[in-house]
Amino acid sequence: MASVGPGSSSLVTGGRGFVGAWLAKGLLERGSRVVSLDVGDDSSRPSGLELHGIADEVEEATGDLRDAELVARTMSAADVDTVFHLAAQPIVGTAAISPAEAFDVNVRGTWMLLETCREQGVGRTIVASSDKAYGAHEELPYREHYALQPTAPYEASKSAADLIARSYWHSYGVPVAVTRFANIYGGGDLNFSRLIPEAVSAAIDGRAPVIRSDGSPVRDFLYVEDAVGAYLAIASALDSAQVRGEAFNAGGERPYAVGEVVEMIARLSGSGVEPEIRGTGKPDGEIDRQFVDASKIRERVGWTPAVSLEEGLRRTIEWYREHPEARAPRRSGA
Asked: In this predicted structure, what is the pLDDT of residue 273?
C-alpha cells in the first residue's frame, strides 16, 4: 500500500481542533485529500482549520462521532483509505465531573468508528490514546509493554479505547495502531486550562501565568509539528507487521517540571512576569510524574523529535503573538 500522500484520502476526526488542524495541514502538504469530522462549533473563536487558513482546502463533515450513519456516509463518499482518530473529550477535569459523557465519547465513539473502518475495509487507522492511559507507575519512563492501570475517568476512557483499538487488529485484521503521545503543545491550542497556552497568553499580555500545582509535577512535552510527523510516519509504516496492532509512545525525550516550563516561557517572551502558584503538590486527580520512552517508534518507524522544548516554546510564543485572536481572554482586573 502506498504511503499517505498524493492519491490518498484521509479522514481526521476532531479535525477542527488543535492537533487535528495541524495534522490536516500536514496531510495537505503531502498531497492527501483531507476530510474533517467534528462537532459544530458555536464559539466566536475561529477553528483550527481557519487559524491555519486551510478551511477551504479541507472537506468538513459536521456531526457527532457517535452517529454511525454519518461516519459511514462521510467515509464512503470520500473513499477514505486512512483514518486518524483524534476526536475525544480531552479534558481531565471535565471527565472527572462528567464521567459518563467522557466514557461515551471516548470509548463508544472509538469502537463505533472502528466498526465502520472494519466494514469499509479502511487500509490504515491510527487511534490517539494518551500517555495518561498508563496511569501511575513507579518505574519511569513509561514503556509500551507496561500495564495500563488507570484510576481516574479520563485515564480509564483512554485506556479502554486503546485496548479496544488494538483488539481490532488481532481479532479482525483491521490495520490499526495506537499512539500514546506526551503533552502536545504549540500554536492554536485554545484550551486554556492547559499549562502552555495559558502561560504563553499570560506572558504575552504581561500578566502572571497561573500554576495550579506547586510547580514540581514532571511532564513530557511534544511539539505539535513533531506530533504530526509521528502520526504520518506511523500511518506510512502500517503495512509492516511490526506496526500493526501496536502502541507507540512519542515525547520530547526529556521531562521537565511544570515550574521550569513556565519560567522558560517567561524568559523567552521577555515579559519578566512571575508565575502565580495556586497549589500545593499536584492538582487533584492528576499524576505527579509522567514521561515516556520513545525508543520503539524510533526503531520500528524511524521517527525522532526534531524540536527541543525551548525552540518549540519560542515558536509557540511567536505564533500567539501573530494570532492575538487565539490568545486566552484577559481575566477581569488583569
From this structure: 85
Q: For residues 134 and 149, what is the distance between their CA atoms, to the nearest angstrom? A: 6
- pLDDT at residue 282 greater than cutoff 80: no
Looking up cell 461516519 gives 71
For 82, residues 6+ apart whose C-beta sits below 8 A from its C-beta are 4, 8, 9, 10, 11, 32, 122, 123, 124, 125, 126, 235
Q: Which domains does the chain have, with CATH numbers?
A: 9-182+222-250 (3.40.50.720), 185-219+253-286+307-326 (3.90.25.10)
**CA–CA separation, 323 and 63 (whole Å):** 27
Q: Residue 17: CB partners within 8 Å, gap ≥ 6?
A: 38, 47, 48, 86, 87
| pLDDT confidence bin for 332, thresholds 50/70/90 | very low
Beta strands per DSSP E along 58-100: 59-62, 82-85
Which of the residues 134, 142, 146, 154 is marked catalytic?
154
Which three three-digit cell numbers place residue 273?
Answer: 512576569
- When pLDDT is cut at 50, 70 and 90, the band that residue 272 belongs to is confident
pTM of the model: 0.94
DSSP per residue, 248-309: EEE--SS-EEHHHHHHHHHHHHT-----EE--SSSPTTS-SB--B--HHHHHHT-------H
Residue 154 is a catalytic residue: yes
- Residue 330 pLDDT greater than 70, yes or no: no
HSE-CB of 99 using CA atoms within 13 angstroms: 9
Q: How far apart are CA 319 and CA 193, in angstroms?
A: 19
DSSP 88: S
DSSP code of residue 208:
P
User: Above 90 in pLDDT, residue 275?
Assistant: no
Q: How confident is the model at residue 333 (pLDDT cuts 50, 70, 90)?
A: very low
